[in-house]
């Protein structure tokens, strides 16, 4: 076992026995080894080179936790339980929505949305089911486990279309806040937005929010401006004439980057004129954004105590119906107080933060390259609860046992009529299902490995004609023809392995290792691969523009994964890319991060790989001290 080293130290070389019995050389980048307490942090990147076996870049398994002596936990105690409870078809639906996903709570059909076990349903019915979540949301929140419950795409669209075709409230058409995953550009759902709108009732405007910018490293000066331009071009190509484009913002709903600016933009231009709808494809981050806006200056001060947070999960289609919170009226006094708070926070340095704030900031820095903080100016002062005191309950004779008063249920806070009678609402809507997406083919565990939830560390390789690059068992790029080597930079989840081989051995490697730990995803062995669709090829011709700038991205299967190709100027390349049958392969020109190949370390001798390099994180709204 290797000792921990300081960040940015050179890779250590060690030898280990491969599963097949041959000896391999492993380059372990210890700077990315997670702390023992960080279960969600990316595992250390590993480069494996076995002669003549293929070269692999993978995520090493975290150290196994040793069970302490005397630990009497039964095996499987920490495993998520199987769905419990029985349905009762005789009980009608409640008419109350699940606060996590929006589905109507019911106990008559365990396979339908909103199911609550009959025993819990009846006990909660006495409290009118307020605050009760469905079994699916409960398992997601407590165990991260998703029940295989998906509505047909047509039902998602019907729910969303019916909401957008409602008569305008307060005489003002709604504002559409379209959440777009910048890694998925060009967005496959954006052109379908017009079909959901009512031509007779045009919307007031469209504000496009490019989300998940925190996981992308800065490949050069002005990279955010280039990303914003890519999002603007995607809107123009979608032909959204019925919904005029108001603005394009770049944010991270997970780390808070850009969200204070988004709230200011909404309050300055839209104010409280009408309702706001959060739209977007599945897994674009709508519910995460909904939750952080619920804890911001955009909602009424008492809303966080009344409205429950939406359930967030990497599983596509978590939100099944509408969720909402009331928007605060941004009066001149409120805007002034908010601006004063932002000015005061901008003068702080990292050293002036509390220990808890520093701990949270360091956690966010490990998760993303761009970090921000979302504060609250208007908070409801909570009253001190009164304690019921009954002297008679404390007086008893020596012959009597003390009696205990029955436990009272805490009364759930609700909005008053005057608070919401003229309210404008912010709605979270069901995600629009992406067709031809590889996530539709994956299991719950595989989805968690494939989706990039941490800052992506680019992995660059230099390949000669006749070499092959595998991204797990989900994608493959063959370098068929070219005069000189070219650079292939992989932008994907840090937990997905990359395997480099030759054309003559590529098919045999896939047949042997697909479904196994070597290629990691899919997982489940031969039985899993029998039901998984085969890889189908598509030929690609590219012409290089220089060794410092990528010519195109090969976007694999709409899962936030792509390979940026960099070649010598005027160099013609013939490539063949593979994705699972039924999924979409897109050649993105110009590339999203054209200078991504520059984010790399020195070449690792004897392999096609370069050492990885993680750029530093940028913190928004904090005064810099000149110290790195």
Automatic annotation (TrEMBL):
Residues 332-359 form a coiled coil. The keyword NAD does not apply. Residues 488-589 form the NOA1/YqeH-like C-terminal domain. GO terms for molecular function: GTP binding. Residues 276-326 form the G domain. Residues 68-80 have a biased composition (Basic and acidic residues). Keywords: Coiled coil. InterPro entries: GTP-bd, Mito_transl_resp_regulator, NOA1/YqeH-like_C, P-loop_NTPase. Residues 52-95 are annotated as: Disordered. This is NOA1 protein. It comes from Geococcyx californianus (Greater roadrunner). The lineage of its organism: Eukaryota, Metazoa, Chordata, Craniata, Vertebrata.
């Amino acid at each position: 076992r290797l000792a921990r080293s300081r960040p940015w130290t050179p890779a250590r070389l060690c030898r280990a026995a491969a599963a097949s019995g041959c000896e391999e050389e492993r380059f372990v980048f210890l700077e990315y080894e997670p702390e023992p307490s960080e279960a969600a942090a990316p595992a250390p990147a590993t480069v494996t080179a076995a002669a003549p076996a293929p070269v692999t870049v993978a995520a090493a398994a975290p150290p196994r936790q040793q069970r302490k002596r005397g630990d009497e936990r039964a095996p499987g105690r920490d495993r998520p339980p199987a769905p419990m409870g029985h349905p009762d078809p005789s009980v009608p639906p409640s008419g109350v929505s699940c606060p996590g996903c929006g589905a109507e709570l019911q106990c008559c059909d365990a396979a339908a949305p909103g199911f609550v076990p009959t025993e819990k349903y009846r006990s909660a019915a006495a409290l009118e089911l307020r605050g009760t979540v469905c079994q699916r949301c409960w398992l997601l929140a407590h165990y991260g486990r998703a029940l295989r419950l998906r509505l047909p795409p047509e039902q998602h669209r019907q729910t969303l279309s019916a909401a957008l075709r409602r008569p305008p409230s307060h005489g003002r058409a709604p504002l559409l806040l379209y959440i777009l995953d910048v890694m998925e550009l060009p967005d496959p759902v954006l052109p379908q937005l017009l079909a959901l709108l009512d031509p007779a009732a045009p919307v007031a405007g469209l504000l496009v929010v490019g989300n998940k910018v925190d996981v992308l490293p800065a490949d050069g000066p002005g990279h955010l401006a280039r990303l914003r331009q890519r999002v603007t071009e995607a809107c123009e190509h979608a032909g959204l004439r019925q919904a005029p484009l108001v603005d394009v913002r770049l944010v991270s709903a997970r780390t808070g980057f850009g969200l204070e600016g988004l709230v200011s933009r909404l309050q300055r231009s839209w104010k409280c004129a009408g309702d706001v709808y959060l739209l977007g494809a599945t897994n674009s981050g709508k519910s995460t954004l909904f939750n952080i806006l619920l804890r911001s200056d955009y909602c009424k001060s008492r809303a966080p105590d009344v409205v429950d947070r939406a359930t967030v999960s990497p599983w596509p289609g978590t939100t099944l119906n509408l969720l909402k919170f009331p928007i605060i009226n941004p009066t001149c006094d409120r805007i002034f107080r908010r601006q004063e708070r932002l000015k005061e926070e901008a003068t702080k340095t990292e050293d002036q933060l509390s220990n808890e704030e520093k701990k949270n900031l360091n956690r966010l820095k490990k998760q993303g390259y761009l970090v921000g903080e979302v504060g609250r100016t208007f908070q409801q002062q909570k009253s001190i609860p009164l304690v019921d005191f009954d002297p008679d309950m404390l007086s008893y004779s020596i012959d009597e046992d003390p009696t205990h008063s029955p436990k009272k249920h805490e009364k759930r806070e609700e909005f008053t009529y005057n608070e919401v009678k003229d309210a404008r609402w912010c709605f979270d809507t069901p995600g629009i299902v992406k067709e031809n997406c590889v996530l539709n083919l994956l299991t719950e565990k595989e989805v968690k490995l494939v989706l990039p939830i941490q800052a992506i560390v680019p992995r660059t390789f230099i390949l000669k004609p006749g070499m092959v690059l595998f991204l797990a068992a989900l994608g493959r790029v063959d370098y068929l023809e070219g005069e000189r080597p070219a650079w292939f930079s992989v932008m994907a989840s840090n937990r997905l392995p990359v395997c480099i081989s030759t054309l003559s051995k590529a098919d045999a490697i896939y047949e042997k290792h697909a479904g196994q730990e070597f290629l990691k995803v899919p997982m489940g062995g031969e039985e899993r691969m029998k039901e998984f669709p085969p890889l189908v090829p598509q030929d690609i011709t590219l012409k290089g523009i220089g060794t410092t700038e990528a010519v195109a991205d090969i976007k694999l299967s709409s899962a936030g994964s792509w390979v940026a190709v960099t070649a010598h100027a005027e160099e013609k390349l013939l490539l063949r890319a593979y994705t699972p049958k039924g999924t979409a392969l897109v050649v993105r020109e110009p590339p999203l991060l054209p200078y991504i190949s520059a984010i790399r370390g020195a070449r690792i001798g004897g392999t096609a790989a370069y050492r990885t390099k993680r750029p530093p994180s940028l913190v928004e709204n904090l005064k810099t001290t000149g110290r790195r």
